[in-house]
Amino acid sequence: MGIILVYDITDEKSFENIQNWMKSIKENASDGVERLLLGNKCDMEAKRKVQKEQADKLAREHGIRFFETSAKSSMNVDEAFSSLARDILLKSAGRRSGNGNKPPSTDLKACDKKNTNKCSLG
Known about the structure:
Blueprint: E1 2-8, H1 12-28, E2 34-40, H2 52-62, E3 65-68, H3 77-96
Parallel strand pairs: 1-2, 2-3
């Protein structure tokens, strides 16, 4: 019901492979499967090779949510999984009620510079 696509922000090749995974999902996954794009290792800013704007643009092109996370520090990990679970539940509830329309998307707000380990949904 949900797929998380993860790339390493310090590895351009891993980001380039996301397009291949998107194509594979389109060809092989169930219609309407929820997808989420995660840029991992955001705790390694000094080694960044993939700019956040690149990934945000890709996510918007595919109509999916995007988070930058750190598995090491747990930054945004809970928020990302919660977001995907909420989208799956909303879609599932829409099917049961006969409303197959996707719920309105929720845009990510910019991270608060004072509290850099949290992003908010608006």
